[in-house]
Amino acid sequence: MSRQANRGTESKKMSSELFTLTYGALVTQLCKDYENDEDVNKQLDKIVFSHFLPRGYNIGVRLIEDFLARSNVGRCHDFRETADVIAKVAFKMYLGITPSITNWSPAGDEFSLILENNPLVDFVELPDNHSSLIYSNLLCGVLRGALEMVQMAVEAKFVQDTLKGDGVTEIRMRFIRRIEDNLPAGEE
Amino acid sequence: MADAALFEFLHTEMVAELWAHHSDPGPGGQKMSLSVLEGMGFRVGQALGERLPQETLAFREELDVLKFLCKDLWVAVFQKQMDSLRTNHQGTYVLQDNSFPLLIRMASGLQYLEEAPKFLAFTCGLLRGTLSTLGIKSLVTASVASLPTCKFQVVIQKT
């Protein structure tokens, strides 16, 4: 193989691992930060939970712009279309995987995304004693933040996780309500 | 395989999160946050370097390693090459990026100049970490005269 071809492959490989390595380093650092405080040792999961959800939310709010600019998908007419776009376009674009969509509720307001692995943890070792809650909340925050920007209030949570020993990773998505644009006070 | 945009968004949140944790009103607080970010970048840089196949690491000279950082590493992380590489041929290198992606969204010119160091610390560590895996000990600092141009100074440490 020519040197040029080798180069391209190396770059791609480094690029793909950069995000998960960085995320892992961040989690490790936060665990270290809180371990020094004796009082909060037991509540570490809860604390890290409360930090990652809002951070993920912030990422989602910005990610949706990037996504809409690059993907050319139109407005989704219902939650089923939304599910398709999330699984087949968004996950593919950002994480290179396509989860399957299953377990629709009869009312069509809940579904599950099934992934074979937890996409954020390919190359990361979980810090001892801390549950996979740490990893899942960033992704749930991203989904919530991104969908809120397209006028959908949703709940996202991990109900199964390969990190916890489950066979698959399952994210449950629940449609709460449509967000109407709120006019600023005084502008009726 | 994670898309490159994810890293940029994560980096912004990371800086904000660690700044909230570590900063205290005194000057010592700021330095601590920067060194925490730099340390994280170092570990990620090391890990990236460790994943390179052995054949690619057969660099003949120190300059080849720096060129690798400017081309391959920079493309992998920021989807562009470094804009210029200068050296005094005595172990000091200056790598200049005229439109550093982590600064671009902030502003251009002199506004937010004070904030810039936070957004460079992780990347300095990344360079230092990758160099470390490639067998080179270094000190890496960054300076910004005007956003979004920045210079990374790499000083090789002789053991």
TrEMBL record, chain A:
Keyword vocabulary terms for this entry: Endoplasmic reticulum, ER-Golgi transport, Golgi apparatus, Lipoprotein, Palmitate, Transport
Residues passing through the membrane, by range: none
A Pfam family of this chain: TRAPP
Gene3D superfamilies attached to this UniProt entry: Trafficking protein particle complex subunit 3 (3.30.1380.20)
One Gene Ontology term, aspect cellular component: cytosol
GO BP: endoplasmic reticulum to Golgi vesicle-mediated transport
Domain of life: Eukaryota
Annotated compartments: Endoplasmic reticulum; Golgi apparatus, cis-Golgi network
Recorded coiled-coil stretches: none
Keyword match Transmembrane helix: no
Family annotation (PANTHER family): TRAFFICKING PROTEIN PARTICLE COMPLEX SUBUNIT 3
Cited function: May play a role in vesicular transport from endoplasmic reticulum to Golgi.
Family listed: Belongs to the TRAPP small subunits family. BET3 subfamily.
Self-association state and partner proteins as the record states: Homodimer. Component of the multisubunit transport protein particle (TRAPP) complex, which includes at least TRAPPC2, TRAPPC2L, TRAPPC3, TRAPPC3L, TRAPPC4, TRAPPC5, TRAPPC8, TRAPPC9, TRAPPC10, TRAPPC11 and TRAPPC12. Heterodimer with TRAPPC6A. The heterodimer TRAPPC3-TRAPPC6A interacts with TRAPPC2L. Heterodimer with TRAPPC6b. The heterodimer TRAPPC6B-TRAPPC3 interacts with TRAPPC1 likely providing a core for TRAPP complex formation.
Protein name: Trafficking protein particle complex subunit
Gene symbol of the encoding locus: TRAPPC3
From TrEMBL, chain B:
SUPFAM superfamilies: Ligand-binding domain in the NO signalling and Golgi transport (SSF111126)
The entry's keywords: Endoplasmic reticulum, ER-Golgi transport, Golgi apparatus, Phosphoprotein, Transport
One GO term (biological process): endoplasmic reticulum to Golgi vesicle-mediated transport
Gene3D superfamilies tied to this protein: Trafficking protein particle complex subunit 3
Naturally occurring in which organism (per UniProt): Ursus maritimus
Name the UniProt record assigns to this protein: Trafficking protein particle complex subunit 6A
Family of this protein: Belongs to the TRAPP small subunits family. BET3 subfamily.
Complex formation: Part of the multisubunit transport protein particle (TRAPP) complex. Heterodimer with TRAPPC3. The heterodimer TRAPPC3-TRAPPC6A interacts with TRAPPC2L. Interacts with TRAPPC2L.
Compartments in which it is found: Endoplasmic reticulum; Golgi apparatus, cis-Golgi network
Major localisation: endoplasmic reticulum
Record-linked Pfam families: TRAPP
GO annotations of cellular component type: cis-Golgi network; endoplasmic reticulum; trans-Golgi network; TRAPP complex
Known function: May play a role in vesicular transport during the biogenesis of melanosomes.
